[in-house]
Write a structure and sequence with these properties.
The chain has twelve helices and no strands. The protein has one domain. It is globular. 79% of the residues lie in helices and 0% in strands. With 378 residues, it is mostly helical. It starts with 24 loop residues before the first helix and ends in an 18-residue tail after the last helix.
């Protein structure tokens, strides 16, 4: 008798898979910050590419904001006694006439001193050659003559290319004139009704974000205007000091060198020393090596006055960033966008930092839209 064994139901054992270790919380947090930073870097790259394609309007608007920060208080003061439109017209026209007068004075100074400057520079080149032939350089006269011959031959052989380059760069003059006109055009409207323009921009935003954007705009404009006025005061002080020193030393081209010092100081840390080096070269050719050394010594003196007196008194209430950050911003801006980047870098970093600090603090006071609209151009 065949007995069949009862079939036992087969029981499947669960497949044991290796358990994955949970990702550490610190690594998760780091990865989250990493991909967010990558997205921000990509967005920043896109913005920089777009700004690189729109250099002329961007620079024109920046210059218009600078002009507005300087002239808006004057227009507001005149508007107390005059209607708004005449007050703005008088302010802008007076500023244009002032700039034109300074440029005309510089041109007249150069033209009146041109003949004497040519003679002084010719004699100065001879003094420089004799100075280089003596101690401690001991340059041989033949080497100096050979260098002059090489320079003359280079200019003669490349005269056509130099002329073509100059002709091609003539288009820059038209571009600069267009940018200046656009800046003047924008600044007139910013000075006249910048507050209403900013209020209109706020009304186009969602109601929940208007207060935040208003606070950010107020902080940005307060910092930008403070920086612009502060750097203008510092630049004017440096220019006055340099002008007095050059007059005492009887260095020619005082007015052009003073103007160069004023505009060069707009580039923090490096602008003023570069302008003083150019002044030292002029002093070397016109007055000799002793005067040039004295002018070079002014770099240290003016740098100390600017760093320990003017900046703490004038700029501390507007810009609160470390000098290391200023230096890195200037260098990074110069690498990315040349001279324009070096000029724009510090106010841009200052504005961004002011907005970040403002938005981190709890909201106090009444909303921006509840009172008089105050914004980036108001």
């Amino acid at each position: 008798m065949n007995r069949r064994r009862a079939a036992r139901p087969s029981v499947r054992r669960p497949v044991q898979r290796p358990q994955l270790r949970p990702v550490a919380a610190g690594l998760q947090r780091t990865a989250g910050y990493a991909w967010r930073l990558l997205v921000l870097a990509l967005a920043l790259y896109v913005v920089l590419v777009m700004l690189g394609r729109l250099v002329l309007p961007v620079v024109a608007v920046f210059v218009a904001l600078v002009v507005t920060s300087v002239l808006r208080p004057v227009a507001d003061l005149l508007a107390r006694r005059l209607p708004r439109v005449p007050a703005v017209a008088v302010t802008v026209l007076g500023a244009v006439l002032l700039v034109a007068g300074v440029l005309a004075l510089i041109g007249e100074s150069v033209a009146s001193e041109w003949d004497s400057l040519v003679n002084e520079f010719r004699g100065g080149v001879g003094r420089i050659e004799r100075w280089l032939e003596g101690a401690p350089f001991h340059v041989r006269p033949a080497s100096a003559a050979q260098l002059q011959n090489k320079l003359s031959s280079y200019l003669s052989s490349h005269r056509a290319s130099l002329i073509n380059t100059a002709v091609n760069q003539a288009g820059k003059v038209v571009e600069i004139a267009t940018g200046a006109f656009l800046s003047l055009f924008c600044s007139i409207f910013f000075i006249h009704s910048g507050d209403r323009m900013w209020s209109w921009v706020q009304r186009q935003l969602p109601a929940g974000s208007r207060g935040t954007v208003g606070r950010a705009g107020q902080a940005a404009w307060r910092t930008f205007a403070g920086y612009t006025r502060g750097i203008g005061i510092v630049a004017a002080s440096n220019a006055v000091l340099v002008g007095i020193a050059l007059l005492v030393l009887r260095v020619p081209l005082v007015l052009p060198l003073v103007a160069l010092e004023f505009f060069a100081t707009l580039i923090p840390l490096i602008g003023s020393p570069i302008a003083m080096v150019i002044a030292a070269v002029v002093a070397l050719a016109a007055r000799g090596p002793v005067t040039a050394v004295i002018v070079l010594g002014l770099i240290v003196v003016i740098g100390q006055i600017e760093g320990h007196v003017l900046h703490p008194l004038v700029m501390s209430w507007a810009v609160r960033i470390h000098p290391v950050v200023v230096a890195l911003s200037v260098i990074a801006g110069g690498i990315l966008a040349g001279v324009i980047g070096a000029v724009v870098a510090v106010p841009l970093v200052s504005v961004v930092w002011a907005v970040v600090c403002e938005l981190r603090e709890p909201r106090t006071g009444r909303p921006a839209e509840a009172g008089r609209p105050v914004g980036p151009v108001g």
